[in-house]
Automatic annotation (TrEMBL):
Main location: membrane
Protein name: SanA-like protein
Keyword Repeat in annotation: no
Alphabetical list of Pfam families matching this protein: DUF218
Amino acid sequence: MQVLVWKAFKVLLMSLGALALLATLLFVGINVWVVGKAQSRIETTLPLCRAERVGIVFGTSHWTRSGVRNPHFDARMSASARLIRLGRVDHLLLSGDNRTRYYNEPVTMWRDLRSREVRDADMTLDYAGFSTFDTLARAREVFDVHRALLVTQSWHLPRALFIADALGVEATGCAVPARPVSGLWKLVAREWVARVATIGDLYLWGRAPYFLGPLEPLEIAPREWDADQNAHAAEQARASTALVESAGNTERVERDTP
């Protein structure tokens, strides 16, 4: 009897070990797939990020649980303001969580970017970006964004780009400069789990955004350098016209001269 019980126990242990190995391989395989699919579209040098009309900035908390300013938030805001100054993007879609009146990521981002001299006309706030999935789904379905530059940390970009592909948003990633921070391994580990969960969201249980709402296409204001270029082009056109008219007058004078 004891021999039979021991054999059954060994079979159970082997079965559990095989399942654990299979789960581990699947977990690692999904992460390798997600990262590999997006890696070639991630730029880590801000001035080299692909120029796009719209940059999507993912929200995060302004403060950490320990009560200090969140370095990931600072990095995203600093990079976003610089991308505007460099002309890599014309408009920023600030998407974040606003579940209660006491917590408002988009407004916090807007205030920070205003302090960095980003114009109000260059920012749109999305108050229902409760997750990476919601942010990208709303960017396409509510704000009519079909091409964008995604602005966030390098460890977050593979999943964001993977979701963008699945939702029909043509995107590239601009990784914000890394900053020394404690506990980063926890965020990276959580991101590994989130990538696996994303496969379920997209291909198994058909996740839908928490809230969509009516269509609100972005209103992208002309950039200052666009206006300068247009004025310069108009000035060149007037100069060319004046030159042609002057040449015509000279030719007529020469013909009329005996």
